[in-house]
Design a protein that fits this description.
Number of domains: 1
CATH class: Mainly Alpha
Shape: elongated
Largest sheet: none
Number of helices: 4
Oligomer: single chain
Helix content: over 70%
Structural class: mainly alpha
CATH architecture: Orthogonal Bundle
Strand content: under 5%
Distance between the termini: 57 Å
CATH topology: Helix Hairpins
């Protein structure tokens, strides 16, 4: 059996990679993928703690987080497609010019 510390360390590494991707990259698709990586890192930590507690409540919460993340991706990608059609770029710095 793998100790819970390994799962938590992996979760922290994945979350750090996600935060780095959000802060450094300017591409909207990379930012969305980094946000998904952060959500999955949190899900991994929840399931790891859930396995120690021998409860299903953490897994149920993870299921709802995945469902909300899927809806977020669908809306986000639709917005990115529309922005690309109008601006011919998905650079985050150029999206600030969408004001009124």
């Amino acid at each position: 059996m793998v100790p819970i510390n390994y799962y938590i360390i992996l979760s922290a590494i994945l979350f750090t990679i996600g935060v780095t991707g959000v802060l450094i990259r300017r591409n909207a698709l990379i930012i969305f993928m980094s946000i998904e990586l952060m959500l999955n890192a949190a899900n991994l930590a929840l399931v790891a703690f859930n396995s120690v507690l021998n409860s299903f409540s953490g897994q149920i919460f993870v299921f709802f987080v995945i469902a909300v993340a899927a809806a977020e991706v669908a809306v986000g990608l639709a917005l990115i497609v529309e922005i690309f059609r109008s601006k011919k770029s998905i650079d985050v710095d150029q999206m600030s010019s969408l004001k009124g």
